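job 3f2a | input accepted
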Amino acid sequence: MKLPPFNATPLMRALAWARVAQLRRQNPVTAQRQVLHRLLHTAANTRFGLAHGFAGIQSVAEYQARVPLRDYEAFWREWWQPHYPVLRDITWPGLVPYFALSSGTTSGRTKYIPVTRAMVRANRRAGFDVLAWHFAAQPQSRIFAGLAFMLGGSTALEEVAPGVRQGDLSGIAAAEVPRSLRRWSFPPPELALMADWDRKLATLARETPAEAVHVLTGTPSWLLMLLEQLPPLTALELLVHGGVAWGPYRERMARFLPPGCETREVYPASEGFVATADACEGEGLRLSVDRGLFFEFVPVEQLEQEHPTRHWLETVETGQDYAVVLTTCAGLWSYVLGDTVRFVSLNPPRLLVTGRTSYFLSAFGEHLHGAEIEQALAEATAELGLVEFTVGPVFAGTRGHHHWLVECTTPGDAATLATALDSSLATLNDDYAAHRQGGQMGPPQVTLLPPGAFTAWMRAQGKLGGQHKVPRVISDPARFAAAAAGLQG
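job 3f2a | predicted structure (489 res):
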């Protein structure tokens, strides 16, 4: 493995400080208005742009009046599937060169998300912002004196049409790394291409030049598996994490990080790079307002209404749970992302991710949101060290109950955990309390799983590593029953 021939940190530090100064002067509302106008102008002559009269749109309000909200299924059915895999001038000008395969954690269905070259550039620039905020907080950092290790799935891409490939988003990112930056990137192609996760980890553990890794990035659950096998990363200065909640991994990860190593959270999605931490942990993630995405926010309780209120940065408020809606340089227009957020500040716009619109459990009318589910379980397992979980409904006779499958680092008592969960959920959610007190729901059932159970289950499904995540809520009873059988078997 060739190490970087020279230290590019001084140059990158200067560029980073210039970017941070620009961001600190930035008016986020103005920036978002400009992004929308650029997107509309660029896509005006696509089939989608002509059908929705992009050329005549002069304001955010006009755009919202002409372009309805759509989820992935609607976009796929109405615009992408009839032309897949060759999307040329459909919702974005030119040929879409990539599709990011994203398996929905609650539905289990594979999504084919268009990734344009404009989106590749936007993601790259948003990624640079992560480094810019790191340099702002750690001006003496020397991260470009060594390697940046991106842990993802296989970078192998399948060619599905001339000039069109699809695969894991990390594979697309690897294919588009500028030649000038490849000398700082790890792993090399022959390792990145490996599809067998266990073999890949074993090989990485053997071949990673641990003393040269200055930046490490990936999903916490998979990073933890890697760090348990690697020699100490004594030069590590920055750990970039995202994709799942950091809380359950913070303490377990800390023992692998050298003194002074900074952790920085990001909010990436296959559809675009949404936000990054620009401040201290817990202060929210700063929205990427000038990196090819225009954001709308719909109050969660209105999302299923025929005409919900569609906010944007000029009208959002702190403390309100919103569903995220994206318009992007990959040809997504008022696309319901599936995540829910809550703003903690407006200038600059910082938010917390509170859950998924589909990360919602209401088999019996209990209306449990993702944030409530995670908070209750965190409280109940505070002394056990939560690793992973999934929950779903079980219907039995005239009433049903929730079945929780939970893996912790420390042995516990399932009945005690069930009682604590029941109490926490009743405190957090009035509907849950009412349905438990009224007898519509039985008490929760908890099954404590042995260490490694979720890893073994994901391995059996061929979903170890990469963009794959454990489905924490499975609302469909039949699918949940199959998952529960696999986890317990």
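job 3f2a | The chain has a mean pLDDT of 90.
job 3f2a | closed
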